[in-house]
Amino acid sequence: MVKGEWIKKGAVVIDCGINHIPGLIVSENTVLSAKRFLEGHQPGKWNISCTKLNLQKPVPSDIVISRSCVPKPIDRLAREVGLLSDEVELYGKTKAKVQLSIVKRLQAQPDGKYVVVTGITPTPLGEGKSTTTIGLVQALGAHMNLNVFACVRQPSQGPTFGIKGGAAGGGYSQVIPMEEFNLHLTGDIHAITAANNLVAAAIDARMFHESTQSDKALYNRLVPLSGGQRKFSPIQINRLRISVFITRFARLDIDPSSVTWQRVLDTNDRFLRKITIGQSPTEKGYTREAQFDITVASEIMAVLALTSSLEDMRQRMAKMVVATSRSGQPITTEDLGVSGALTVLMKDAIKPNLMQTLEGTPVFVHAGPFANIAHGNSSILADKIALKLVGPEGFVVTEAGFGADIGMEKFFNIKCRYSGLRPHVVVLVATVRALKMHGGGPTVTAGMPLPKEYVEENLELLEKGCSNMRKQIENAQHFGVPVVVAVNGFKTDTEAELDLVCSMAKAAGAYDAVRCSHWAEGGAGAVALGQAVQRASGAPSNFKFLYDLELPIADKIRIIAQKIYGADDIELLPEAQHKVELYTKQGFGNLPICMAKTHLSLSHEADKKGVPTGFVLPIRDIRASVGAGFLFPLVGTMPTIPGLPTRPCFYDIDLDPETEQVNGLF
Amino acid sequence: MVKGEWIKKGAVVIDCGINHIPGLIVSENTVLSAKRFLEGHQPGKWNISCTKLNLQKPVPSDIVISRSCVPKPIDRLAREVGLLSDEVELYGKTKAKVQLSIVKRLQAQPDGKYVVVTGITPTPLGEGKSTTTIGLVQALGAHMNLNVFACVRQPSQGPTFGIKGGAAGGGYSQVIPMEEFNLHLTGDIHAITAANNLVAAAIDARMFHESTQSDKALYNRLVPLSGGQRKFSPIQINRLRISVFITRFARLDIDPSSVTWQRVLDTNDRFLRKITIGQSPTEKGYTREAQFDITVASEIMAVLALTSSLEDMRQRMAKMVVATSRSGQPITTEDLGVSGALTVLMKDAIKPNLMQTLEGTPVFVHAGPFANIAHGNSSILADKIALKLVGPEGFVVTEAGFGADIGMEKFFNIKCRYSGLRPHVVVLVATVRALKMHGGGPTVTAGMPLPKEYVEENLELLEKGCSNMRKQIENAQHFGVPVVVAVNGFKTDTEAELDLVCSMAKAAGAYDAVRCSHWAEGGAGAVALGQAVQRASGAPSNFKFLYDLELPIADKIRIIAQKIYGADDIELLPEAQHKVELYTKQGFGNLPICMAKTHLSLSHEADKKGVPTGFVLPIRDIRASVGAGFLFPLVGTMPTIPGLPTRPCFYDIDLDPETEQVNGLF
């Protein structure tokens, strides 16, 4: 008998319960080996084969670096991190999904250390949070030999072909293969598009059929007589519990002007920002104004990110409010009868996706909700599974979108509230470039050359701009978690500049502040950061939420505005005031708050840099994502689907039919 | 050294070329074993472990049957049919993609026998072509022990949640797991949605940017000055070859009223049939009327189905015509600069998907173009790979959508023309139900009980209706291929009825006609059909196309109308006449013809059953799918996106969060 085979049999014995298999002779040897087998699958010290980087100068483009590294077969990485083969579903050679059964298998296992990466208020170019997240795990895993997982968001495919390019980190700190990461991945976003648009189609079709049929006809069609009997589907029975009258059962009576559910596409299609639908003669004149959002703005994406199990997702899929009836009742996806189908469409998307960094350490890529009208954080499930897999001495590094005033605040107040997880360390990414902008440097515009203030030493601007970093450190401290500042160095930064940022950060109360160069050097460039994070994870921490859920809606908004943004007060405009009343009446008043505010300023005005003061935050409107579980106040107008510029990125993207290589992604 | 390991090393040796590895001692034993290894991977007689069916009466629902069978691990099936592990990309445990490198590996291998399944003119309920396709391969593979592959279309997900339900065959003749088949599969349709809509967004964004910018500004943005130099992307260089003037290069000058490219969604959303786009203030008043089609109606789906390699797909992606310029030039996807990105988005979709039947035989599921405005056949690549894998004594059974006048005619004149493959046998599916309808039986409506004529013996109606079968047999004979009629039996059919159909079929010139009961009995119910097909495949055949490509457009349409539909003549309405002239001038006159006609009658009027005569076929308009490679004349108005009924299927669909089972799909 070959050893591998024997071990497999050992595993089966254990699964069935050793003492209950009739006729099985359990020798001491069997028990010992079975024990060894299980130990082998208990999270302990991993033995990961890391990939050596062959660093080039100047640093090549992201796609060239990504392609120059041959990724490990993903099933091998899965084994290395302690996943059983039955728990892994391969999607090609470089991606895999992890089944949720692992949550149960590892439930008794203590969690690892939980690190969230956030940033100061960024320039429109971004300051390298994703790159730092990946650089940090490459350092912890490949250089410090610790168990570590990165948990990152799946990027929207739309911007990949528009102006932004890829989002898999950058330079020598990337998730690979970057083209798989940036394109379809395993289809999760596509599943959301399908699910979201099924709801949208169901809403308009329902309004149409209700408009053209009597109550009785509707009822006869909804619950057809078959063999002398009417049979309700389980979803209809759920509804029957609340409505005993045919009219209320058969007629949802949706107010067309109240529909908040939009169609979505994962494409930068500006011409769908506002449209009129229903203009074909077959729809008999029932036209209405509507819009498309980008898929990652769908509430279903937020549900995916915040759910904790299949059962929980099924419940959230039923609770999503899509409109209000003419009598003021919230209309849900369950009312439309579509909640089960949505869960079926999302049954694979709920499983986190395993990929790897350039240095061969594991990454979960899972969920990527919009960071303004949603909470902008990757999934709770990926974090939870990763925390079990790394074990008590290991680390999970997760990323929160936008600056600390947005992504981190929502990470703590929304994501950690739903997950019950408690973070050990905040890594705050800062760049000399962004700090100079906050100090009064000229405007930074994507696609335009940087003004000279940003490429020459300027300690004065820099020191002034550190105010923003100080405020964001303070923001993290509101939650009682130690902060490590990671100064993401660019080649134009001077020694004096980098030193100044570090000393200002420590003076502002950071646990530590270190320079890193992971973009140019991979994990080796973030070892100092890794060591600081490891030390900080042992420091005392005293996590607390910023507000109590039971407070009135306006009070919760005010607390965020005053404590995090530095506002004097908030102003509820009439529509927002109306929604406060409506949602309170409908029973949604105790949901957490997800602010939809610009990420380019601590205030609501994108051009106010540094630490704006003396402002009142205007709340234009409030919307509810009841299934995801938050209210989102709109501060100003949020664009929810980007457009294509005159020369989109796609001009450079092509496939070499010979080698099957993707060119031109960046 | 374990045997498996040794064999693997043997394989590596061969891959590298035995004689060229320095220092390698090639013993006779090595060579012999290497040869044995390669022989093991040459297509020969497969040794497939078939799955035994446990037949229940009455036959349970499709999803219950599908779930009652545990599918083989798909990597095992892949090995059984001679695929090398490097050629297979797993997508979970029950689906895999096959890499195109296999085409080269097996290029010297003779093809198997090629069988196309088509049908008589159906009722709106469908007559079981898919079920017969699967039943036939289960018979040939699991009962007659032959190498056999089924090649079927991937169904659109939209109708799964609307009125139609699943499309994986039915009863005991199904592709499993049916929920995987009917839902996302491996994401090919989602990739098409993304690619198609990127083109649509690019068209409107380009028209918008051209409307708001001078030639010079456009040029500067399209080819920005960087470091004193302008760099053209390879796609732009392709365009430079044809346009030396800045204006023509920078300004496509699309006539907005000429745009034929529509947006798509894989959702039954009737409210998107006609819409107005661009109504947000950010689009500055550039609104226009547009529409959404269902994704399978996208030209990109037709390209996927008709392409023969990655290189060929890249070329087709460049040739798709989306509009006409104000000066009458065709505007292509290459002109928009998006052709490379489309190929990148479709790089995985081009690989056929491997699944299995209920009895464990292999199935390729690949591409599913609309059967009216496109050609309604599964992919050429899947057929080609399957024909190599089964080897010269094996069979590939592929299905053509709709009745023989539509799907089969397009299979021969379009698909076989592009593939160069020559079919051996036509299987024509007939049902007593549909033949009675053609004989003058009452209207058959989906969702309504069948009138008594259909559930009681009625030889008179049946005999009269056999005219339609006779005509469709004749249609197949136009192409010189032997026809086997498969009479798909229902439990209400009588012996006398089934016998009558068989004898009428033989009298009409069918090579053979047999009764089958694969829906109720799986492959065992189609063994007689399998034997007939095997015999017919050895019969003389003399394949020929119906028309010559070099004929004028109108002549090609007339030949189809007269020979296949039985029309007296055609009538080109003004718009069609205009398009004949335009396309002839633009150089597209020699493309094959893809008729967009109702499938419910041989004529253009759906309610004319049997064999209509004495009619003139009106051609309302003609469109071009230049990338896919056909012109499609529109006979009447084709609905291109279905709607949701008052009570869509989704009411019954749900996921059991405990077992993760899908319920309610049918």
UniProtKB/TrEMBL annotation, chains A, B:
GO terms for molecular function: ATP binding; formate-tetrahydrofolate ligase activity. Signal peptide: none annotated. It comes from the Eukaryota. Pathway: One-carbon metabolism; tetrahydrofolate interconversion. Its EC number is 6.3.4.3. GO terms for biological process: tetrahydrofolate interconversion. Homodimer. Pfam families: FTHFS. Keywords: ATP-binding, Ligase, Nucleotide-binding, One-carbon metabolism. InterPro entries: Formate_THF_ligase (IPR000559), Formate_THF_ligase_CS (IPR020628), P-loop_NTPase (IPR027417). This is formate--tetrahydrofolate ligase. The keyword ATP-binding applies.
